[in-house]
Amino acid sequence: MRRKTSTRRRAGSNLPPYQDSHNAALSTIRSFLKGRICYDAFPISFRLIILDTKLSVKGALQCVVSAPLWNSEKSEFAGMLTVLDIIHLIQYYWRITASYDFAAEDVETLRLERLREIEIELGVAQPPLLRKPPSSTLYEAAQVLVQTHARRLPLVDYDSETGHEVIVSTLTQYRLLKFISINCHREIQQLNLSLRRLKIGTYVAASSPTDLPEGQKPYHPIATATLNTTVFNVVHMFSERSISAVPIINEDGIVVNLYETVDVITLVRSGSYQSLDLKISEALKQRSADFPGVVICTASDSLGTLLQLIKKRRVHRLVVVEGEKGRLLGIITLSDVLRYIMGAGTVNNESHESKPSQSQIQAESIQAPPPSPEGPSSPLVSTSTTPSS
């Protein structure tokens, strides 16, 4: 006797196939991070520089721009030195003195341990004393990076004989995302929804000058500058907004360059404090010759394409542009990408909106531009090395 074929169908997802595969890929990546520890993300060989808090700021800057700090008196971990600490220091000198000679003389003896006191005087947020044991899962480490907006996470263990702390390494957002891109190749290929659709990054609030509310700057909330802006004015933006880069645009909003906190450090290292009065156009001429250029993308590029780019080259942020000439539309940082992967990313059918991320570069989060038509985006990420003038 032949069985009658059942007419019942298994309940399926209401999501289009590409949304199902996108969400499944994110889930697989998170599971992967839960099954790996921080040790797994270490490169085969690496150099770790640790700075004693008794070291002078000027001496520290001759070595690195970011490193773990060590309190030798207490034999314990004392936080991180970051580029933003130096930006705050410049802001501090600007407030207390107009003399470049005084700043140049004082920084000769200023010790790293005083940086936290200066941040208190400025009223800026002090960096949290973050740490994680290297045996923590990468998922746990990523959660700390996302929750605290930190770019680096010190990995601290304990000496089994003395019980003292031992700084093993630091885990950066870039190292973590690159580890994902190398080991989750198949899943990354399934992340083919556009950055615009996923609302990753910070975008210009007004879609056109006619939509601009009275009193609001054209590219709000993104901090911008022109080639005629002074370095000092950009330093104020860095310090007050706790940001690390500012797009340089022309009168039409076309992105012509990017000025970063590391560019300021280059000037400070040389002792050319007077250079802080230079216009950006002049300061860019002193930029290191190995500057890789401004990495740009469009809002229709996919998350998968972005992660593939991170696998190939060191990227810290992307400037989102529109139109053939490259008008500024937004900024995407590694913090935005990591935050989305860790929890903001689930596409559903009822709403095409995922939880908007707050950009690490920009202090405010805003609604991204309207979503593009449904379906995977065509990948395109390019690099612009526009002349500084």
Automatic annotation (TrEMBL):
It holds the Pfam family CBS. Residues 125-187, 216-278, 290-351 form the CBS domain. The keyword Repeat applies. Residues 357-367, 377-389 have a biased composition (Low complexity). Keywords: CBS domain, Repeat. One of its GO terms (cellular component) is nucleus. Residues 348-389 are annotated as: Disordered. One of its GO terms (molecular function) is protein kinase binding. InterPro entries: AMPK_gamma/SDS23_families, CBS_dom, CBS_dom_sf. It comes from the Eukaryota. Belongs to the 5'-AMP-activated protein kinase gamma subunit family. This is CBS domain-containing protein. It comes from Rhodocollybia butyracea.
